[in-house]
Design goal:
Blueprint: H1 3-15, E1 20-23, H2 40-47, E2 52-55, E3 58-60, H3 67-76, E4 80-83, H4 99-115, E5 120-125, H5 133-142, E6 147-152, H6 160-182, E7 189-191, H7 193-202, E8 219-220, E9 225-227, H8 238-244, E10 245-248, H9 255-260, H10 300-320, H11 323-330
C-alpha cells in the first residue's frame, strides 16, 4: 500500500460513526512496509476531530524488529505482537528453517522487552504440534514472556483426537491461570482466557464467547479494495470474495452491506453437523469452515469440530469459575 492510499483510507475511517477507532495493520509481514508508519501519529492527530484512536499491536515474525525499527516504533508509540510458537527453535520448525535466524528473533524480542515494553507473544497452535502445548506456554512464561495470546490455526482440518488434545491443554492452562489469579497476581496475562473470565463474571455467556467482528469492521487490501472479513479474500474462492466485498476506497465503501453481514451464519454457505439452535459469534467465522489450500468448504463433520474447538477456552473458563470463585474474583 502506498502512503496516499493509506491516508485516504484513514481519513475515511475517522469520519465514520463512532467515538473510538481501532486500527490494525496486518500482513504478510507488516514491518516490510514500516515506512508507512513514519509520521503516522502526527497525521492521525491532524485529521482527528476529537475521537479516541488506538493502533493495535502490530503482528510480526520479529526478523525486522532491530534497534532501528525499535526507535521508529517508540517514536510513533506503536507496539508489536511477536509470533512465536514456543521458546525453542524446534517448537518453531513450521515457521523457521534457520536456527541462527531464530536466535536473532529472540535477541530482537529481548531488546524490545528491555528497552521499550513487555512484548505480546502470539502462539499459533498447529494440529501436528497440539499435544501438551500447555507446556510450551509455561516455558514462555518462565522465560519472562508474560503477555501471551494463543489460538488454533484455521484453514486446515483438525481431527477429533487433536481437538481432544487441544481441550486437555486448555483445561490445564485454565487451572494454572486460575491459581495465579486467585493468589491476586495480575502480572501474567493469557488470552483469550483473560477476556473469557471477564465475560463469565459479567454473565456474557456463550453467545458472546467467540469474538468475530464480521459486519462491524472494514478491511482494506493494498490495492484499496474493501471487505468485511480479513479472511474472505485469502481462500481463492470467487463466491466468498464477492459475498464479503464492500467496495473500493476510490469509489464507494458500502457500510450498509457490511452491517447486514452481522447476521451472517456460515451454515448459510457450508453444511455442518451442528445442532445448536441459538447461534453464537463463532457461527459468523468463515475461517472455521473453509480450507485455505483448496478454497472449498470442509466436510460438515470438520466444520462442527472447528466450531466446538472455537468455544473450548470460554467453556473452560466458565467451568473453572464456580459461583463462589466468581464472587471472590469479582471483588479483586
Amino acid at each position: 500500500m502506498d502512503r496516499p492510499r493509506l491516508e485516504k483510507i484513514l481519513r475515511w475511517f475517522i469520519e465514520q460513526d463512532g467515538q473510538e477507532k481501532n486500527i490494525n495493520f496486518l500482513g504478510g509481514e507488516p514491518l516490510l512496509s514500516a515506512d508507512l508508519l513514519v509520521g503516522l501519529k502526527d497525521f492521525l492527530c491532524e485529521i482527528n476531530p476529537g475521537k479516541i484512536i488506538k493502533i493495535k499491536d502490530i503482528p510480526t515474525n520479529g526478523t525486522l524488529a532491530d534497534e532501528a525499527m525499535l526507535k521508529l516504533l517508540k517514536q510513533e508509540d506503536i507496539r508489536l505482537a511477536f509470533s512465536l510458537d514456543g521458546a525453542s527453535f524446534e517448537d518453531n520448525k513450521f515457521r523457521l528453517k534457520n536456527e541462527a535466524l531464530f536466535n536473532k528473533i529472540l535477541k530482537n524480542i529481548e531488546n524490545y522487552k528491555n528497552t521499550y515494553c513487555l512484548p505480546r507473544i502470539k502462539y499459533t497452535v498447529l494440529p501436528a504440534l497440539v499435544k501438551n502445548f500447555d507446556r510450551k506456554i509455561l516455558e514462555l512464561i518462565n522465560k519472562g514472556y508474560h503477555d501471551i495470546q494463543f489460538f488454533p490455526v484455521v484453514g486446515f482440518p483438525w481431527n477429533r483426537e487433536q481437538v481432544q488434545e487441544y481441550k486437555a491443554s486448555i483445561n490445564r492452562i485454565t487451572q494454572f491461570y486460575m491459581k495465579i489469579l486467585k493468589m491476586g497476581y495480575r502480572g501474567i496475562q493469557i488470552h483469550p482466557l483473560k477476556d473469557d473470565f471477564q465475560r463469565v463474571l459479567k454473565g456474557e455467556y456463550f453467545d458472546n464467547a467467540a469474538l468475530c467482528r464480521m459486519g462491524s469492521q472494514p478491511v482494506f487490501m493494498p490495492d484499496g479494495k474493501a471487505y468485511t472479513c480479513e479472511m474472505a479474500m485469502q481462500y481463492n474462492n470467487p463466491y466468498l470474495e464477492k459475498k464479503f466485498s464492500i467496495g473500493h476506497i476510490d469509489d464507494l465503501v458500502d457500510i450498509q452491506k457490511m452491517k447486514s453481514l452481522k447476521s451472517y451464519k456460515l451454515c448459510q454457505d457450508a453444511p455442518t453437523d451442528c445442532t445448536q439452535t441459538r447461534p453464537g459469534a463463532c457461527c459468523r467465522k468463515i475461517c472455521l469452515a473453509y480450507n485455505l489450500k483448496t478454497g472449498l468448504p470442509f466436510s460438515p463433520k470438520e466444520i462442527t469440530l472447528m466450531l466446538e474447538m472455537d468455544s473450548i477456552p470460554f467453556l473452560a473458563a466458565k467451568e473453572a469459575l464456580t459461583p463462589r470463585q466468581e464472587l471472590a474474583m469479582s471483588h479483586k
